[in-house]
Fold these 4 entries.
Entry 1:
Amino acid sequence: MQQLIECVPNFSEGRDMSIIKQITDAVESVEGVRLLDVDPGKATNRTVVTFVGAPDLVVEAAFRAIKKAAEVIDMSKHKGEHPRMGATDVCPLIPVSGISMEETAQYAHQLGKRVGEELNIPVFMYEAAATRPERKNLATIRAGEYEGLSAKLKNPDWQPDYGTAEFNPGAGGTVIGARDFLVAYNVNLNTTSVRRANAIAFDVRENGRVKTDTKGKNVLDANGEVVRIPGACKSVKAIGWYIEEYGVAQISMNLTNINETPLHIAFNECCKSADRRGIRVTGSELVGLVPKSVLLDAGKYFLEKQKRSAGVSERELIHIAVKSLGLAELAPFDPQKKVIEYLLEDKTSSPLIHMTLTDFADETASESPAPGGGSISAYVGALGISLGTMVANLSAQKKGWDAKIDYFSGVAERGQKIKNQLVKLVDADTQAFNQIMEAMKMPKASDDEKAARKSAMDAATRNAIEVPLKVMETCLASMEVIKEMAVSGNPNSASDAGVGALCARTAVQGAALNVRINCVGFDDVTFVENALKKADHLLNKARVAETEILAAVDQHIGI
């Protein structure tokens, strides 16, 4: 999975768009980083910027933005309603996909160290990147704000984690850290009553409600503090409000840790509370962007509740999530515009898999040498495991096999992962061929140019050999799934498992041909010997697996 992190820095300027533009230009100057949102506020005199990308690139973009903010914002003249302590007030990094919170915190420290050392800005680390418990909370660090920062820096307990302890009057101080993704989410009710919406919000949110006695007075503990009855969902903040535009009340929530309370669990708890109060949840609304996993997890959850296999395509999982959560009730919901990964997707880098079936066939049949046998082998392999996955999903729904749903769902999910890998390899093989062609076009007049061309050709050739080897490995793994379904799956679909096995073995053998032809003339003898040996081994195993699968299929067919 591609590593992605989001960065949501808050800059202490929300009125002068020319200043804001200079900061966002600094973000966009880093190729590979996608600027997703710019949200200025006049009253707060503060702008929230959202961008996303690979960790190293995001750290670079954040550094450039912080540097530019220090150049164009003078904190000694700043006034605004929102608490703040610096030109870049806070800069959180948020794991989106393929990266842990611990790894994200390490990137936050890389950024903090660089900002402190190169820009002479006092940096305090917070949340998952905090260096001590009392610095986890942003409000604690920011107490006293910009006006109290000079005195704070003289306190031995408040030495910055990075940078100088000297007051920087222009830039102030910056808080950098790593935190969970925050999802802004509203649940729609079939009522206009804010009081009833708030009652549901109190049932759901972590902070719950104040406990009262039979006379309606607040119950106090031994220290004189009010006693609270916690709500059902940890890491959830919620209130009820009425939206005149829609004519309904909503429960407005912030999910501050989607691992602790996923979106679908918060939705379900709202439904339970509403039902107890004679109110119905009619749908919901996502505010801003979400990681793809939020909707995939929701889709799996609702399929499992329906006693159905969760081993379906990504598109189907998201469709189920959107329908089950009612995300399109108030306005059309387009996952391509709401899911971070889809916004970042570069379809030009994978043109083949975005073609129609007819266009792909036409492109293959054209006079162009690519896509060729390697891409076709990967695609045939993808079709093979798709058949095996289909048998798993059909078996999960077979009458009388309810006790086996979890097993078949797990097999189908394995099949989906293999299918997705092979689909990516369709384009990867053609890209490997194009890499060789580009290397061949390199100049070779001088010795240096010849050396550079030779190096590029060697790298491209290795890649052109490694890609079909990866196709072979992946297709061989697919045969394990197909064999399981040939033996244990719905016997009425045995022939489908058989065809899947034929496709998988064909894909392995086709990719082996690609390995062999790409090895011809390559002067790295050791690499070639190892590649050919590995290809022969994989092909022999695929042939054995095919024989075993077809034997199991024949037993089911019986004629």
Entry 2:
Amino acid sequence: MPLYTQWTPNTAVNTLVSDETGEQSVTKLALLPDGSTYYTWFDNRGGGYAVYIQKLNANGVPQFAAGGLLVSNNPQNSSLVDWELIADNNNNAIVTFTDIRAGGTINPYAYMISPTGTMLWGANGVALSDSINSFQPNPKVVQTSDGNYVFFWRIGSGPQKLALQKLNAAGVKQWGTSPIYWTSGTNENYDWPAIVPSDNGSVIVMFSGYTGSFISPANYRIYSQKVSSVGARVWNATQDTVYSLGRVSGFYTPRLFSDGNNGAIYCWHDDRNSVNLTTGYVQRKNSAGAILFPVNGTAVSGNTTNNHFTPMAGYMPATGETYVVWQEANSGQTQWGFYAQKISSSGVRQWGDGIPVQPLGTDQVVAYNVVAKDTAAVISFSQSAPANTNIIKAAKIGTSGAYLWSGNIVIASSVSSSKIRLNHIIMPASGMSVVSWQDKRLDNGGVYAQNINWDGSFGLVGVVNTGIVAQNFELKQNYPNPFNPSTSISYSIPQSGKVSLVIYNSLGSVVKELFSGSQNAGTYEAKFEASGFASGIYFYSIKVTGSNGTDFSDTKKMMLIK
């Protein structure tokens, strides 16, 4: 199996993160300040599930060993619960997950991994809880504005409660040996913890509350609270009620997103009118705790004949607006679609009943995300295909609701295979997105990723240093070849010098200068985008004037077929 060690423009291949024997599952993705990306997953290549991590630099080149770096092989249940990965301001990875190392019940642990793969909180991490006999799933973590880390998870049953703990950069607990426990004081269960950072070292948390059973909950509510840097409740003595109308399934996970301005965006769906139709809703609160949208949320659509499931949100600080995407389905759930909406700063829908990114039909969108930059949103989604397989698609939508990429929707992975989960980050400066997923193209699951540039293209942009050491002067054959509409050209220079990389047509005329200037020793990748060029034979030529007087030149042929 070939190992593509950079962002590839070939979406029929994608960038391999790890695809070892067995299953790589429950994948996570996090963006570092330097443009690198961390990937974590559960991996049963050795039998039981272990936790692995890989890091790709900004050019998509793996930084740890092939197949990933082992984080923990402590004993794990055969069934997995949710967990969390973030990257901090020092380019470290913070991972929190559960296992049964302390006995037969899962408990949460936290690890910090440096950019070079060092386990900074010890080989076995930090045990977050002092109670080993209670079932403790779904730990979450954020880095606070003062450089610490707050963890939030669920504990026990009958009734369920929540726990909070804070670690400093050295991995030392800041809120005592025992975590801070949140209990209802009644028979109300607390569930589905979520957390985002706020100001002055504080965090905003969200969770569900209900009586009865997980299968048939009653009196369902969605709560929120701001917690100070010392663990105190800020907004009031208990918690604020974001939603209180009761008609939500206990199996459903509400979603919480940062608004990038120390506030939070809340997403959920419910059947508040008891008409057997579900509608998605969105709420926003600022850092002071003020509710900015109507009480109990703004509906993502005014359509009253279809279902609107599982909304996901991305906030646009430049305009104060919120982008939302969701699954659309008819009343019988025999036709499925995928829609987008923009909501104003006061909670008013801007695009009617939503934009049909994928109109109602037989293909279902099974996983999706939306991220915002400047005044546009980039949407990624996994669309079902024949024989229980999926392909990954993406679109960029502007503030008017217009598509901004050629062809409207691009295909980020054309491999027809079973794909599970979909993660999506966007780089604030360049606007390049990275999506990752679990992919069963070879066996029970591997981890694959694809970059999507701000212009909707794939692969490396411009001329970038791949990080590979250059031993000799070399101009490599472009890949792919033949190509349409873009191809990548790689070259190596073992010493610094002046470099010229030029494209010629078959008549010998210069049609594109890819680079002209000084470069340090290294291996470089250049992308040639030929959307505006005619089919035919082209040549690319390099000339290097080395710093120690050694010169190099070479020319190769390539073919554009449209």
Entry 3:
Amino acid sequence: MIREKRLLLFVPLASALGAATSCVPNDSENHKPLNIIYIMSDDHSVQTISSYDNRFINTPNIDRIVSEGVKFTNSFVANSISGPSRACMLTGKFSHKNSMLTNLTRFDSTQVTFPKILQENGYQTAIFGKWHLKSEPSGFDRWEILVGQGQYFDPIFITPQGRVTHKGYSTDVVTDLSLEWLENERDRDKPFCLIIHHKAPHRNWMPNTTDIDLFEDVTFPLPHNFFDEYEGRPAAAAQEMSIAKDEMDYAFDLKLNDPDIQTRLKENLTFALRRLDSTQRKEWNRVYDSVLVDFKSRNLSGRELAEWKYQRYMKDYLKCIKSLDDNIGRVLDYLKKNNMLENTIIVYTSDQGFYMGEHGWFDKRFMYEESFRTPLVIRLPKEYKQFRKRGDINQFVQNIDYAPTILELAGAPIPEEMQGESFVPLLKGKNPKEWRTSLYYQYFEYPAEHAVRRHYGVRTHRYKLIRFYGHDINNWELYDLDKDPAEMNNIYNKPEYSKVQSELHAELKKLMIKYEDFEEEDKKIYLGL
């Protein structure tokens, strides 16, 4: 039984599992329910969106959402890995509550999700692109999802009727399917929630051949902590996601396709390249054959080799971002052309952040800032005068908040079991006194790819406390983010921080109890249960 969790912005449509009715906002000037377009990429770093950070790339279309809406400057995830992050977003619950702990888990699609509630309350729902939850989507009137991580070229999609291959580049194809549904398949008499989930810029960062020459003449600044030695941070030292080491694969990741270069993931590149047609392959070879010649001629080693790998990684990653931003522009242009902008909420985010060489890394998983943070920008219809129209929102939000927020925007009931909080008051420009001042985080996937140890922790506006735990580690880390934003100096057990440390332990325990995360033996011991 779904119960209303809070007062709603709009008059509720109906009980979540009851008969659907029309959605009527309280604002008497408006007569139509809000449409919702939720666009999410995979592994898009905050550092590579120009409205957040203009060092690397210009993203005019994501910035266009910002200029016409709001940007969240303190947006975080609950578990920085793809499948679990998506489950948190759909259910509004932490991983231990939705049971999607790792990418190896199968998502229980019988549980309550926000698309199901919208569907039961008169909304059409559709999803195109990455799903990555193993089970089939439920709560959607129309869906086509990528197989697993998906392929960049000629991607294979799973549909209710079976598998189908769509010719083209994945980011273009997902957008094509989404726009086709908007134009020709939806019922125009009903509100809709359209979820557009891109594969890009997930590893191995294969750019569209139309963008293949971009950034080739650019040298990117090296992060100041690229050659981090991880002093006082054993979990960071034990990871296997280093750009300098073989974890960044010469073939799969760096596209060095040569018989003399045999790597662990060489066959992955071979498989991916088979999906390019002859014209695409010709363009691909033109660029990457010259990269191979350059690499061989340099005979690099040590720090010079690590820096060369970093530059190649950045170029390919950013080429994928260029296509992503272009396709977001296609969606915005379609909505504008069809006079839909003023009745549609547009959300852009990523399933987590990503390392652009900080600490010498690629990938995500850690509670450190680059992967814990995620971009979140929202365009708000001007006609809804109760919303703030533009600007930064600085309060803490987390991806468990997306489900209750979307439900409140739609005027649908919010289940009590959802642990997130609707941030509609923040969209309205309010500053609720009771809004959260700390964040809880958890990561479970070990042993696994990249060898990031299990951990959980708490972050306040200034400090962060993390516990790494398991059969081979039991270690605490504490950071003063004002003095050490790069998280290089673990100050746990430093006498001058004893009071702060005690306060953070108390806050961590409070959040674990609030979110009922005490089922694992390690956490029971920590809580004294």
Entry 4:
Amino acid sequence: MMTFLDHRIPHADIQAEHIRTLFRPTFITIIIAHAITGAFLVFVLWDTAPHDSLLVWLAALYSMVIVRVFFIRAYRQHPPSPEAAPRWGVLTAVLTGLFGMIWCGAPILFLDPAQPASLIAITLILIGICAGGTAAFASYPWAYITFAVPILTSLTAVLWLRGGKVGIALAILIVLNLVINLIYLSNVHRVLNESLRLRFENIALRGETEEKSALLETTLQNMQQGISLVDQDGRLRMWNQHFLDLLGLGHRQPDDHQPLDTVLQAADPPLSGASGRRIEYRRANGIVIEILQNAMPDGGRVLTYTDISDRKRREEALEAARQVAEQANTAKTRFLATASHDLRQPIHALGLFFAVLAERVRNAETGPLIKQIEDSIGAIDNMLNALLDVSKLDAGVVQPKVGTVAVAGLFQRLETEYQSLAQETGNRLRVRPCQALVQSDAAMLERMLRNLISNALRYTSKGCVLVVARHRGAKLRIEVYDTGSGIPANQLDDIFQEFYQLGNPERDRRQGLGLGLAIVKRVAALLGHDITVRSRLGHGSCFAISLPLARKSPQQAPLPAPTPPGLELKDRRVLVLDDDSAILAAMEGLLKCWGCQVSTATSLEEARVKIVASATAPELLIVDYRLRGQASGLNAAAALQAVLDHRVPVLVITADTAPDRLREAQASGYPLLHKPVQPAKLRSIMRHLIGL
């Protein structure tokens, strides 16, 4: 927007204003004063000059006075435009020139140096009217020049030629007076010019200020927000109607400089002095107003008022939906934990019973059948372990052990392991070698890649699965490509949800539970690795994991010591505490097959009695995490330790997968196995705890 400093006042406007001053009402008074002065001069010269000449000269002077008066009145009745004003200036200069010619005739016709009265009267009057003309004609110097120069020139010439030495001296003084008058006229004209320029600029500035004020007022009144401006004393200086309407005060108009707090107190409910940069104010009718305030350099404040009722309703609706979703997720987790626990109990007993049975009836004839039963139990175990993995990750009990991992060895193991599955599904598996080192948890990274590769092979038929690693700056991007049917774009996010499977409406267990990608996503988030997926229907998909590169060589984990065959647990005393009689029977049978001396109990009290009654203390306690009546196996283990009066190794076995229970069990410090427990794993950890 243009500011007043950018205004260039047209010269015509200034010139027109100069000319307008020549026609102000006081100018008529000056002209009448000339007529009176002329009559006075005739009166003084009446005895020394011809009467006819005096009367003719006075008549000519009066004629010009009348012409000048009518000329001024014509201008004032029809003021010209700035463009036409210069013509009136020229006419004024012409008329003042004629007026001056009449006055310059006085010294020529009537000045007699021998008559002191004539000399003094004409000289003083002419010098006086010329001096007075400098102020009258300062706005238009040409009018002064055409008026004064002829008068003083004629006076100077007459004195020089007729006045002798005295006349010459007076002539020189008159010339000096004319020069001084012209200099003074120039200075006054320059001051008038500057004054007019400033005046026009002030007018322009005032107009622009008024225009901006009107624009600001229009803008404020048309804003959707309420606005109020207060000074450093908290008094209102500016506001718009929307400010009053939002606060329900549209019926009252505050006074200028009224305290803002007084206005706010009239709201319903009263709003105390707004403090803080942002506050939310809820009116009695439920409308929510957001008030923001910003400080100004002079100590004042600008406050904005916005109706955020719709936004608050949306936020409340989203919060309610989030709470419903959280409740549903909690209910789902609780259901899964309960279902998992109830399923694990009999499956755990089944596995133990089968292990005992297999030891007794295994031969060439029953071997294939035993292998099929073991595979079925293993499939169930894998499914339950997948559920357990999700629960562990949700509970936060899984802590990654980040270190340097060699991609070459990892790729080699995966390629060797999954070639047989690729052949079964009619696919080709290609793994490109990579010598990079990365920062990750070796076991978790391998678990993620296993899930991705097995998924790719499962959903690809007679195609190809490619595993490749690419360097991307300071990161390595491991990609798993397949040539399967692809994933619809609107389901790329859904595939990472629990139990979500594409193309398996009949829930074929050979295609898993739909937890593989859910586990991959959780593990990637835990490790801080980015996971992305791209897919084209009919062409295949690409899952990618981005992880940071490492520079140091990986540390080789020590290989576990081989377990010696035979009855290494023979004669070891074990107390088993579990509230499920079937599990107790299965555990007793299995442990006795391994040569253990087994004592079982279904409650803490029964276990106490058996320990006290026994001549020898148990060497190992195997305790179920959840006992009858919601009793804690951890508390039971601590109580039995107190009865024994010395520390005995404790192994906790649980079928619970609830996140809070997993965290509690993890924090106990006891080794933890999850039902169903594989016999080989149970025997291995028992040997470790007993110290074999």
